[in-house]
Design goal:
The chain has about 450 residues and is an all-beta fold. It has a domain at about 20-210. The protein is built from 1 helix and 40 strands. It has a 15-stranded parallel beta sheet, with no helix packed on it. The chain has a 10-stranded parallel beta sheet with strand order 1-3-5-7-9-11-13-15-17-19. Strands 29-31-34-37-40 form a 5-stranded parallel beta sheet, with no helix packed on it. The termini are far apart.
Length: about 450
């Protein structure tokens, strides 16, 4: 971005105004257009229009009521603009051919808008301090954008429509927010926000989507929507009021959410094709939910400490779930409907509960709960059924179920308030229950 600004500003032999009621207006229509303009102090203003051929611009305003507006319409466009202090504002509008832009505003009431419409678009915006904003719109061809805002009331919005889209927004401190929309072709986007009232919202429409959000501290929130083709998401968020929501609809879906500490929450929905998901939340008020509807589903959730809870639903095709949860108010629910189901739930300590589910085809399950107020219930209806539940200490109960074809179970509960009930109806039944110490009871029914 500095190259774009400096390249344009180096040519500024054009206009210079110092310490006065500055204003400059330049209109150039055809052939070897170039411009300059340097304004130093007081009521600065500049307006440049260039229409066709070898366009190039500049503009630098150093202090007081800065304002700038640049329009370039066709051919080898390039612009600049650097405003260093006071009531900054800049707008650049480029319409066609080898577009590029710039814009650097350093302090006070910053605002920047860049529009680029067609051909080899590029834009970079950097605003360093005070009431930052920014808006970039790129319409078609080799789009790319980069916005850096460092401190105070940051805000950014980027909208890219078609062809080789990419975007990168980096906001460092204070009231961060960001929104990026990308509609079609080789989409990519990354947003990185470090501290204070973070928020990010990404939407990608079609083709080679990819998205990542990293937010480091304070009131984090992130929402990602991806609709079709080679989707992947990301998301980080390391401290304070974390929240995340990812929706993915079709083709090679992925997703990964990592949230490290404080009021974690995560929600991922995936609809069709190569689905996968993974959520890891490490400490404080964890909650996670994953919902997958069709094709090669997988889900893995791991929550390590404090008020854990998880819920995974999978409806059809190559399902398998997961779930960990190692300490504090654990609870887990997994429900799987059809095709090659398998589920695993592990909960290590404190107020464990678990449910599983499973309706049809190669069912499985495994649940281990190690200590404290354990309870479990499994389910399973038809075809390859299997279950294994082991609970090692404290207020154990287990109930299983199983309805038709390959049944097998196994309950092993080692110590404290044990009780077990199995079930099983038609075809391959078998059960195996071991309970070693304290209030053992068992009921096994088979048909």
């Amino acid at each position: 971005m500095k190259k774009v600004v400096l390249c344009a500003l180096a040519l500024m032999g054009g206009t210079a105004m110092f310490a006065q009621f500055n204003t400059s207006t330049v209109t150039q229509t055809g052939l070897l257009n170039v411009n300059g303009t340097l304004q130093v102090g007081l009521m600065n203003n500049s307006d440049v229009d260039q229409t066709g051929n070898l366009n190039l611009n500049g503009t630098m305003q150093l202090g007081d009521h800065n304002d700038s507006d640049t329009d370039q319409m066709g051919n080898l466009n390039l612009a600049g603009t650097a405003q260093l202090g006071n009531r900054n504002e800049a707008t650049t509008d480029q319409l066609g051919n080898l577009n590029a832009s710039g814009t650097l505003q350093v302090g006070n009431r910053n605002d920047a808008t860049t529009w680029q419409w067609g051909n080899r678009n590029l834009s970079t915006t950097s605003q360093i301090g005070n009431r930052n904003g920014s808006f970039v719109w790129q319409d078609g061809n080799r789009n790319e954008s980069d916005v850096d805002q460092t401190g105070n009331r940051n805000d950014s919005y980027v909208d890219q429509w078609g062809n080789r889209n990419s975007s990168d927004v980096d906001q460092d401190g204070n009231r961060n927010a960001s929104e990026v929309e990308q509609w079609g072709n080789r989409n990519t986007s990354i947003v990185d926000q470090d501290g204070n009232r973070n928020n990010a919202d990404l939407f990608q429409g079609g083709n080679r989507n990819y998205s990542e959000v990293y937010q480091d501290g304070n009131r984090n929130n992130a929402t990602t929507d991806q609709i079709g083709n080679r989707n992947y998401s990301g998301v980080g968020q390391y401290g304070n009021r974390n929240d995340s929501d990812v929706d993915q609809t079709g083709n090679r879906n992925g997703s990964l959410v990592i949230q490290d500490g404080n009021r974690n929450d995560a929600d991922t929905d995936q609809m069709g094709n190569r689905n996968s998901s993974s959520i890891l939340q490490v400490g404080n008020r964890n909650d996670a939910r994953t919902n997958q509807v069709g094709n090669d589903n997988i889900s893995i959730v791991e929550q390590i400490g404090n008020r854990n809870e998880s819920d995974v639903d999978q409806y059809g095709n190559r399902n398998w779930a997961g779930t960990g949860q190692y300490g504090n108010r654990n609870e887990s629910t997994t429900f799987q409907l059809g095709d090659d189901n398998y589920a695993l739930t592990i909960q290590d300590g404190n107020d464990n509960v678990s449910y599983t589910g499973q309706v049809g085809f190669f069912n499985g399950s495994d649940v281990y709960q190690v200590g404290n107020s354990n309870f479990n219930a499994v389910g399973q209806i038809g075809l390859g059924n299997y279950s294994l539940v082991e609970q090692y200490g404290n207020s154990n109960i287990s109930l299983v179920g199983q309805a038709g074809i390959g049944h097998y179970s196994h309950n092993l509960q080692v110590g404290n308030g044990n009780f077990s009930l199995v079930g099983q109806l038609g075809v391959g039944n078998w059960s195996d229950v071991h309970q070693f110490g304290n209030g053992n009871v068992d009921v096994t029914l088979q048909n």
